[in-house]
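re: ur question from earlier - yeah i can do the single chain one, its not a big deal. heres the input i used so u can compare w yours
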Amino acid sequence: MNLLIKNGRVIDPSQAFDAVADVLISDGEIKAVGFDLGEADEVFDATGLVVAPGFVDIHVHGRTPGQEYKEDTTTLSAAAAASGFTTICVMPNTAPTIDCRSVVEDVLSRARTEGNGVRILPIASVSIAAKNEQLTEFGELKEAGAVAVSDDAFPVQDADFLRRTFRYAKTLGLVTMLHCEDIALTGGGHAGVGKGGGVMNEGQVSLEMGLRGMPRVSEELAVYKACALARDEGARVHILHVSTKGGVDVVRAFKAIGAPVTAEAGPHHFALTDEAVRGYNTGAKMNPPLRTLVDCEAIIAGFVDGTIDCIATDHAPHAAREKDREFDAAPFGIIGLETSLPISLRTLVERGPLDLPSLVFLMSTRPAEVLEIDAGTLQPGARADVCAFDPNERWAVTPEVLRSKSKNTPWMGQTLTGRAKATWVAGKRVF
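and the output i got, formated as tokens:
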């Protein structure tokens, strides 16, 4: 079967292509991008739509195995496809932790049998049971299908352990993805919930609300340590969810001297400030926390000059009963897949300094490059992972519209602009 996607504005940063054109797909691969491509068995009219490489999210909490009441493979795949994502990488803080071959294989098996075709790629834990005491078997995990290793949710504090992590990962060509937080300054981060740990950004708002804050320097010190060790070891490190101006500045400085560092930021961290937490809104509680306008502007500047490589959602579903409690006791995290495109369009393109090709680069081509995934391109011969979206369609964020099993989003009830209209994975329409 051949598919012809016609008359859309085709944007492919991987080959600097931006024109109203057609895309021909055959046998699950991109056959051609251009004009007058002939006939096809199936035609999709993309008039008025942007046609781009399928979006890639390298930072998602899939909750499978063990926490399917928050999100399962079926709902995760549906949320991703409806948002234009064709590849998502899932973090290891599951139950059990993604720390051995059998759990990696389980995640991949469920993706095949319970998903809709969206690629779900596991990221393995750097340590057994995420305790940061004993390294996992990176080689075995990679062989089983893990695409990177990470400490997310349980940040490594010991510099020597982190150095050993980098050395092991380097021998296998793996990227280490780090949640950068000095828990001595935050009171424990995730582990500190309900135990006196910080629960939001430390600043004027936290002071007025009487909540313990998480200072910016806790991120900045940890980012510096990670980048310095990566520089010395020549090992690739990816800084997860940068949230502070200081964090951006540190990454920029190390990139300038050639350190093998990449970084990401989420839409919530460049579109919202800690003002969203007022009223003890647990829907705006996350780690790293929402910061200030200065930090948002620094992240956006980081996208412009290439300091921040890509957008990643840090999609973190939680059940309503978990979020609907006193602020201190509620878990960190928001869902992000289904609001990523419209929030990024509004903040970075409509109101900001970027154009549409730059946004597609940040959401598709560049994240695929960071983890060396075969995605993010419409070049002939590539997998036919494609999304078509309407940058002008308005829609209301309601529980009924969201496909994620959990509904914990700070944009609930708001009207957003920009929506995926069709998504194909390897030439198969999944939305």
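The first strand starts at residue 2 and ends at 12. not sure if urs matches, ping me
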